Fold this sequence. Notes:
By secondary structure, the protein is an alpha/beta fold. The chain has 14 helices and 12 strands.
Amino acid sequence: MEKQTIEKVSHLLETPKNIVIVGHKNPDGDAIGSCLALSFFLRNRGHQTQVVMPNDFPDFLKWLPGCESVITYDRNTKRVRDSIRQAELIFTLDFNALHRTGDLSEVLESVQAPFVMIDHHQQPDDYAVATYSEVSMSSTAEMVYHFIDAFNGVAEISSEIATNIYTGIMTDTGSFRFPATTATTHRVIAQLIEAGAKNSDIHQRIYDTNSPERMKLLGVALNNLHILPEYKTAYISLSQEDLDNNNFKKGDTEGFVNYALSIKGVDFAVIFIESKQEGITKISFRSIGTFSVNEFARNHFNGGGHTNAAGGRSDNPLEKAINEFISILPNYKDALNHVS
Ligand code: 5GP
Ligand code: MN
């Protein structure tokens, strides 16, 4: 963390403040874990905090310490709006453009309170008075650890904070295997275990609580797998009907795209998920090596993220979205065949 950023934040936190901490739409383990960890830390430093999300988060995260205090804009619109309007300081975590909060962005754009950004995605927007952005970081949760360290707070890391940060790092690194996982990440993890994060327990709670319906849906997804060897590409699709037939719940499709990426010879994997309610097709992109799915998602599907993991959307229904994707691929044939 840069000295200048530390000084700015230090100044903002000099006196006890009323602080709102915001994560992105469809929050994942990193968004929730980071926000909750920071909330515990700031409270310990004498501030008042409220964690706010645009919408609900998956059941497999609903045991995280402090998660019962999270309020969501889609369910508690007035409370969230009031909290944000009363806030003296707003932290935004695990995203770097206000539109990533969906409808909540209108509220955020209309307030006077200063923003502090903590995030590891590429190409951050310029809305914060203090921007702690590091795209090489494994996760925002790891950055929250470094943030706490920068404020000499490592000794204050309770088991609640440690559990939340551990979960954020674990979920964003595919259990410490993606390339952004560094020796420092592992040193942070060691500290978190010493501070009370029960590592084996956390893995079990996140990964071993599959519902039978999720497993059935995975079967459907794998059945819908298509491989395009000339582009080293594989894609999976799930229609609204597939989701409805298998009692789809938020978070059920998390990680499905990685099965496509795990195929030998595949360097680019995509999952298309139809959402009739939103009238869109949600898309997740993953790659191995130098092919930037951040650029691909930004250029063609209204999205973004990281070099090897990004998300986006198409305003077309499922089949049309897939055809749109397939028609773009020839432009990337060379890039996809020279992935290192
Ligand atoms: P996922 O495919 O798991 O939804 O997202 C992969 C990564 O891309 C995550 O880090 C996520 O925050 C980011 N991401 C997902 N959707 C979008 C989007 O629409 N815009 C941007 N800028 N990033 C996204
Ligand atoms: Mn993240």
